Amino acid sequence: MHVPVLLEEAVSRLVVDPDGVYVDCTVGAGGHLVCLAGKLSEKATVVNIDKDTQVLEQARKNLSGISQRVILVHGDFRHLRALLKACGINEVNGVLLDLGVSSFQIDDAARGFSYQGEGPLDMRMDTEQQLSAWHLVNQWPEEQLAEIIRDFGEERYARRIAREIAKEREIKPINTTSELVRVINRAVPSQAKRDKHPARRTFQALRIAVNDELGALQEVLPQAVELLVTGGRIAVITFHSLEDRIVKNFFKRESLGCVCPHEQPVCTCNHRPVLKILTKRPVIPSESELADNPRSRSAKLRVAEKL
Ligand code: SAH
What we know:
Blueprint: H1 7-14, E1 21-24, H2 31-37, E2 45-50, H3 53-61, E3 69-74, H4 80-86, E4 92-98, H5 103-106, H6 133-139, H7 142-153, H8 158-171, H9 177-187, H10 200-210, H11 213-227, E5 228-238, H12 241-254, E6 275-277, H13 287-292, E7 300-306
Parallel strand pairs: 1-2, 1-4, 2-3, 4-5
Antiparallel strand pairs: 5-7, 6-7
Helix pairs in contact: 1-2, 7-8, 7-10, 8-9, 11-12
């Protein structure tokens, strides 16, 4: 079961026109979609994208009670414009992104996302993709592995972990999640293992890299804004600081007029504000949501409106 995060907070801010066209770029099990549909009229359309076919099957099962026109699309939201165009849609009233993985994916040990289960080193959201966590762990240069673990996992023992992985794979390939956890355990000093699971950050880093999560986010944001009608809204729920920073900086830049360097006396950029930020500070889960759903712990919601 996937418990939707910041559900009412996101959906209530997203809907401006109940008859409009909405896109849920990360439909998952359809938690946000069902809530969104509840706020729309029967004239509305909701396009739902996910790059994971297994997840889409799950979403399909949860759609039975929905009376709006619902379109399910298998694809990567980094191609948002093209995916919508293929559905005959060129403008939308709202775009929702609820980033990261769903519990449905994490809890299925066979997908290899979890350091708690025993599974293959996979972590691909789109199983049609070639690159998996196995390739990263067994084939990427130690240096590059250390960079990924440091940058995407914000892991202070990245270098040691990459070293230990490189040593292990010289003897034999690292094939499963539990084998990787054992290697990470050897690399991380015992005093650092007290609070959180020592493999947590490395697994996050590998997942982000395998699925190019930050690249996809960077690509979708400008397309989403371009597709929005005037007054249309974009709502993004992030789960770690790297994602949140991308959204925050993008919203900020697009809400400004001139973005020329300060020292430049005359504006040459001709940049015009296209967004109004509706969440000066990100919306975070309430105490009760945090108590009910630990996965919401690091969630942040930012919403902006097209000018
Ligand atoms: N809002 C959903 C949960 C979404 S979890 C609910 O309440 O049920 C995030 C989902 O986004 C996952 O199913 C994942 O497969 C999908 N996803 C992540 N990155 C994606 C991308 N670049 N393109 C399409 N789907 C993506």
